[in-house]
Specification:
The chain has 413 residues and is of the alpha/beta class. Helix content is 33%, strand content 21%. The protein contains eleven helices and 16 strands. It has helices at residues 37-44, 63-76, 98-107, 119-131, 160-174, 192-202, 222-232, 243-255, 271-277, 297-310, 316-337, and strands at 13-15, 48-56, 84-92, 112-115, 135-138, 153-155, 178-184, 206-213, 236-240, 261-264, 285-288, 349-352, 355-359, 365-366, 369-375, 378-385. A six-stranded mixed beta sheet has the order 1-3-2-4-5-6, with helices on both faces. The chain is globular, with a radius of gyration of 21 Å.
Length: 413
């Protein structure tokens, strides 16, 4: 049983021993984390001050707590740990109050800001950080495509749209040649909705239809959407939903005895969510950059370290936090060795909880993708997808008919 008490939001917490520090500065290179040579000596003697925008009020209540705990673990682990003081600020739904919280952190003279927000929200925060010479590390779900890099910004997220793209390719090759999508309206503003179907079609499959739920009178009800999916005869039904909505849709698919293979978003199917989904989750496929039971040394090391620290297995948000800490720590070591780490940041790799992390020229960190299936109430890795660095040709443009009613800024719902 976990008896760890999370640090109250807004209270700084010191972590780690025997470490050196780092200050982020916007550089001329894309997605740069850098320490000015003149500032190195001043910061080497004290703890790294890390401001953290912690998401609150998500469907998975422990997401923010896990992000903080994973971040602490990321600084603690590795051959050369770094001293860091985490200074958290709560942000409702991953975006509400993010600007004022960031301004407050910058006023307190943090060295770097780690933000559990969407990439869209991060766009409004980047100029604030850049004006103060502070780097921004976006540690969100990664459901929106980042088209171009922003100086001083690195995205170390869950790579949800990349996972959805990998699932589309794998589903076409392994589950069948036709696809039907059920999309809950509050989850419709994410690029992973299109990544799945685009990749599926690019691999030679057919998209037979798409139904929108939870948005009357524009959309249909869950029962109507499930009936449409069943009547389409599609070999694969993909569910883009989260929280209670994914539970309602999966339950309806089971009640209506839909025989198609079922795929759902990776965040919605993360292990801590499976208990609330019950038997309707059995056999459901998903893709994610995180699978706690993946048989790799990186995952095993992180699970062991996190359990020792927190008394429980890590979730996807903990993995993202850990890897954000590792990227920052790696930047600190390189910049303290030589000035101008920013000039050669693109293409560098860092060992993280999910294995080897590679930074693309759009500032997005990429890792291997796990294709998962729920077996006996937990996700098992059944295949892997390659890293997706940059933007695949299948997502470089969208047909004019493929537009969302709005763009969702939530980290998760």
């Amino acid at each position: 049983m976990n008896d760890h008490l999370p640090t109250p939001i807004g209270q700084p917490t010191a972590i780690g021993v025997s470490r050196r520090s780092f200050v982020g500065a916007a550089g001329i290179a894309t997605a740069a984390l850098a320490v000015p040579a003149t500032a190195q000596a001043a910061f080497a003697a004290r703890s790294l001050r890390v401001g953290v925008l912690v998401p609150e009020g998500l469907s998975y209540a422990r997401a923010g707590e896990s992000l903080l705990a994973g971040l602490a673990c990321g600084f603690d682990t590795g051959s050369k740990p770094h001293t860091a003081t985490l200074i958290p600020r709560g942000v409702r739904q991953g975006y509400a109050g993010a600007t004022s919280a960031t301004a407050e952190l910058l006023a307190s003279r943090v060295d770097v800001v780690v933000a559990g927000v969407s990439s869209i929200t991060a766009e409004s925060l980047a100029p604030l950080c850049r004006a103060q010479g502070v780097s921004l590390v976006v540690a969100g779900v990664g459901a929106h495509v980042v088209t171009t890099g922003t100086p001083g910004v690195v995205h170390v997220g869950l790579q949800q749209w990349q996972a959805a793209h990998a699932m589309g390719v794998w589903a076409r090759r392994s589950l069948g040649g036709s696809l039907f999508e059920i999309v809950a309206a509050p989850d419709a503003g994410y690029d992973n909705v299109y990544a799945t179907s685009r990749a599926f079609q690019a691999a030679g499959g057919s998209l037979l239809g798409r139904a929108l739920t939870h948005n009357r009178p524009v959309g249909t009800g869950v029962a109507e959407a499930v009936a449409a999916a069943k009547s389409s005869g599609a070999a694969v039904v993909v569910v883009h939903a989260s929280g209670r909505r994914v539970s309602e849709i999966l339950s309806a698919l089971r009640r209506d005895r839909v025989s198609a293979a079922i795929v759902a978003d990776g965040v919605a199917m993360d292990d801590p969510m499976l208990r609330s989904l019950g038997s309707s989750a059995a056999g459901v496929h998903s893709a994610s950059s995180w699978c706690s039971r993946a048989d790799t040394s990186a995952v095993r090391r992180f699970v062991t370290a996190y359990k020792a620290q927190e008394g429980r297995r890590p979730d996807a948000f903990a993995a993202v936090g850990h890897d954000a800490g590792r990227v920052i720590a790696a930047a600190a070591r390189r910049t303290l060795r030589r000035s101008g780490w920013a000039a050669g940041v693109t293409g560098r790799s860092v060992e993280g909880a999910r294995g080897r992390l590679t930074l693309g020229d759009n500032g997005v960190v990429a890792s291997r993708i796990s294709i998962r299936r729920v077996v006996k109430g937990r996700n098992e890795e059944i295949a892997t997808g390659a890293k997706i660095v940059g933007i695949p040709a299948t997502l470089m443009s969208l047909r004019t008919t493929e537009t969302a009613a709005y763009v969702n800024e939530y980290l998760g719902t």
